[in-house]
UniProtKB/TrEMBL annotation:
Keywords, sorted A to Z: Membrane, Transmembrane, Transmembrane helix
Organismal lineage: Bacteria, Bacillati, Chloroflexota, Anaerolineae, Anaerolineales
UniProt-recorded name of the protein: Uncharacterized protein
Sequence intervals crossing the membrane: 12-34, 97-118, 125-143, 149-168, 180-206, 226-249, 261-288, 308-336, 348-368, 388-407, 419-440, 567-589
Length: 595
């Protein structure tokens, strides 16, 4: 599919060895205390298992609602529901936990090789500089921390570099590039990747002018515009069903939360710098001064004004990359003093202006302050994204580009032998610094016990169906094997303290009747109340016994969806089939021509 992708055996072995070691470190840190795993897996793992049960009973169909959590909730309309995602696909083969680890490994591989391809084949950097850039991108604290704590929607973050390949690789036809870009965009949405999408937009705003300053010749503006427009348009058609369902649900539960960081501007910039330094740079310093990982967590909270766990505040880039950038900046200042630094054209000055503007927009989002942030945060869904310190991840790829430029310059100036052993040393150090994440595991809230969920999945594979029999005040992740729908939901869409979870249920049998209702929420009333003549959190009527029986047995109830939703469902299905068919046909024609 990609021209000049194949590399010689030695290069491939060097690439593969390093990413293999990195993935082993990442997955080992994530599973360090198994069966106790990151607390947010308590949301995703049970729902992956629940959807697996849905597939076993209903075939490959949309799981609109589930009785398994909080007395009956929307499933597919929830923005965090991952029904059509890579980990959900892998649950067909293995447990939700193993499926999650496997999908993380796949995304790491894609991000690593895409970054290498972009740097080597599109920017034409030395292959060792490209390899180090790929290693820096995949081995960042932002990804390690969020995967450890269970923010499974962030697993798609490495796809950022693949998007750049699709936009700039001229060996791909515009049709093929747009089609793949659309599939990736849809995958982000169906994989609960709303935060990564926001980070991508901020990062691209910084990355594109940086790329123009590095090599303006890679910009074919008509091609870039056509691929971007085509990919976005087709991606929206692919995602129309999900977006429509999510907006229908979130009109009642917008989850609008505004971050407020009570620090002055100077401290905010210091906090941002410390985020980028993070665990890999600061923890060794804390050890040398007699402190520990807990002290680092407290320090990061005080410095940023963001009173979150370390997993939210750490956007650490490799100390190796920081040293490279520092040395490169010193070299640039020396050239400027000697008046050997090349003059910039008007277009390059324009790119710098765009870059500064993009950086400022990103900073406004990180600090949750400023005119532009206030305007953009009122957009649908954007206003629901908080924990703004996460947006600092937008700087990761641009900084890696800067470091790769410097490495490539050294590769041209030094002998091949010298650059070989130095790049090997830098690669080794990069991997060694990642081992520091074993020492912050206690700061990552490994509070979810996987034992019950593993048992649930095994028994579903053996044919058990676990009909819901009772509702009970317990964590919604703990009752599945006993046929209990726990009322203490982990779903943040209802508020972290359940302030918007106004159910009418009582502990007891779901078939208990009172006031003409069964003891189970009709979740259709939370998404499409008008079409079903319901109000929010209305229970299932005694006149709707047929749907109650189907629902508690995990079959699809016959509740109504509006015409617009049914149309969007069809549009998304047909767009998906057409795109996959078109890509398959293009590959078949290419194969025929080659043979």
């Amino acid at each position: 599919m990609f021209k000049n992708w194949y590399v010689d055996k030695d290069i491939f072995m060097a690439l593969s060895t390093k990413i293999f070691v990195l993935i082993v470190i990442l997955l080992t840190t994530i599973a360090a205390f198994y069966p106790s795993i990151g607390h947010d897996y308590a949301y995703f793992i049970p729902r992956l298992g629940d959807t697996f049960l849905h597939y076993r009973l209903n075939g490959f169909s949309i799981q609109w609602y589930t009785p398994s959590f909080a007395g009956g909730l929307p499933a597919y309309p929830n923005p965090q529901h991952m029904q059509f995602s890579l980990p959900q696909l892998f649950t067909m083969l293995t447990t939700p936990w193993a499926a999650s680890l496997l999908s993380i490994a796949v995304y790491c591989l894609v991000g690593y090789f895409s970054t290498f391809y972009f740097l080597k084949n599109i920017l034409r950097f030395h292959w060792r500089a490209s390899m180090l850039g790929a290693l820096f991108f995949t081995g960042n604290g932002f990804y390690f921390q969020h995967m450890a704590v269970g923010h499974l929607g962030f697993q798609v973050f490495p796809l950022l570099s693949l998007i750049l390949v699709l936009v700039f690789d001229r060996s791909l036809s515009k049709t093929k590039a747009s089609s793949i870009l659309a599939l990736i965009g849809a995958l982000l949405i169906y994989s609960a990747g709303f935060y990564p999408i926001a980070i991508f937009f901020l990062s691209f705003g910084i990355t594109l002018p940086v790329l123009y300053l590095i090599d303006p010749s890679i910009f074919d503006w008509k091609r870039v515009g056509a691929i971007t427009a085509g990919g976005l348009s087709l991606g929206l058609l692919l995602s129309a069903s999900k977006i429509s369902a999510v907006l229908s649900f979130m009109r009642y539960f917008p989850r609008e939360i505004t971050d407020k960081y009570l620090v002055d501007l100077g401290q905010a910039f210091t906090g941002l710098l410390l985020q980028l330094l993070g665990v890999m740079n600061l923890l060794p310093i804390f050890w040398l001064t007699g402190n520990n990982a807990r002290d680092l967590s407290d320090f990061m909270r005080l410095s940023t004004g963001g009173y979150y766990g370390l997993w939210e505040l750490d956007i650490s880039i490799s100390p190796v990359l920081i040293v490279i950038i520092f040395v490169g900046i010193v070299e640039a200042f020396i050239l400027i003093r000697k008046k050997k630094f090349p003059r910039l054209s008007k277009k390059q000055w324009g790119a710098i202006a765009v870059l500064l503007f993009a950086i400022w927009v990103c900073i406004e989002f990180i600090f949750a302050k400023g005119i532009l942030f206030q305007l953009l945060s009122n957009l649908p869904i954007v206003g629901s994204l908080h924990v703004n310190v996460r947006y600092a991840a937008a700087f990761i790829f641009p900084l890696i580009l800067l470091g790769s430029v410097i490495l490539n310059k050294w590769a041209q100036e030094w002998s091949e032998k010298r650059f070989l052993w130095i790049s090997d040393l830098l690669s080794l150090l990069t991997i060694v610094f990642l081992l520091l994440y074993f020492f912050v595991a206690d700061e990552q809230s490994r509070a979810f016990d996987m034992t019950t969920q593993a048992d649930f999945y095994t028994r579903v594979r053996q044919g058990e169906t676990f009909p819901i029999q009772r509702v009970q005040k317990m964590k919604d992740s703990e009752g599945l094997v006993d046929g209990v729908s726990g009322l203490e939901t982990f779903d943040p869409i209802f508020g972290y303290y359940w302030e918007n979870f106004n159910h009418e249920l009582e502990e007891g049998d779901v078939k208990n009747k009172s006031d003409g209702y069964y003891n189970l929420t009709n979740p259709a009333g939370l998404v499409f109340p008008e079409q079903n003549q319901l109000y929010l959190f209305e229970r299932i009527s005694v006149d709707d016994e047929k749907n109650l029986i189907a629902f508690i047995q995990h079959f699809r109830p016959d509740w109504q969806r509006p015409l617009y939703q049914r149309v969007f469902d069809i549009v998304s299905i047909f767009t998906c089939l057409i795109l996959i068919g078109a890509l398959g046909f293009m590959e078949f024609i290419r194969f025929r021509k080659r043979t």
